[in-house]
């Protein structure tokens, strides 16, 4: 199992735990002034489910070219760090933005977090797309490489 897959799955589990805790805490009156609903939905859907899907798909779909020196793609790590940094920025800024709706700085942080998440999804698509080939096509390419070697 690639290192990046372990990171995606483990961080997904952390977001799952935090999302459940936040959902529980949001039921108390202490947190009623802060809108936590979007935060814990992001934790569960993007933080947990999406990271689990990305991590497992990076592991299960074979790479187009097997380079023994470079085992993991820069795109995979860019996906991981962009997604997680975007999520963390969103978790910090969005509840505060509900308290101070006119804050230009907080609006900028929310936009930055969204851009980081979009960057993560584009990097993921760029990484996975070449891996989605029919089995016959992969076998033909590997046979051609064996003949040329």
Q: What can you see in these coordinates?
A:
The chain is an all-alpha fold and 149 residues long. The chain has one domain (3-148). It contains five helices and no strands. The chain has helices at 3-25, 37-60, 74-99, 104-128, 135-148. It is elongated, with a radius of gyration of 19 Å.
Short description:
The protein has 149 residues and is mainly alpha-helical. The chain has five helices and no strands.
Averaged pLDDT, please? 85
Provide a count of the helices.
5
**Global Rg:** 19 Å
Report the count of strand segments: 0
Q: Spans with pLDDT under 50 lasting ≥5 residues?
A: none
Shape: elongated
**Proportion of residues in β-strands:** under 5%
Largest sheet: none
- List the helices and strands in order: HHHHH
| N- and C-termini, Cα separation | 28 Å
Number of domain units: 1
Secondary-structure-derived class = mainly alpha
Helix amount? over 70%
């Amino acid at each position: 199992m690639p290192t990046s897959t372990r990171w995606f799955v483990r961080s997904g589990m952390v977001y799952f735990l935090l999302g459940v805790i936040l959902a529980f805490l949001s039921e108390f009156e202490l947190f009623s002034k802060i809108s936590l609903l979007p935060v814990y939905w992001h934790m569960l859907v993007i933080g947990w489910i999406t990271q689990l899907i990305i991590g497992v798909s990076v592991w299960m779909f074979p790479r187009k070219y097997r380079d023994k020196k470079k085992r993991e793609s820069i795109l995979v790590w860019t996906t991981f760090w962009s997604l997680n940094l975007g999520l963390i920025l969103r978790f910090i800024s969005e509840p505060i933005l509900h308290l101070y709706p006119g804050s230009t700085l907080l609006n900028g942080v929310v936009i930055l977090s969204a851009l980081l998440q979009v960057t993560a999804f584009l990097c993921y698509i760029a990484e996975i797309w070449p891996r989605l080939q029919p089995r016959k096509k992969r076998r033909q390419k590997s046979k051609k490489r064996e003949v040329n070697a």
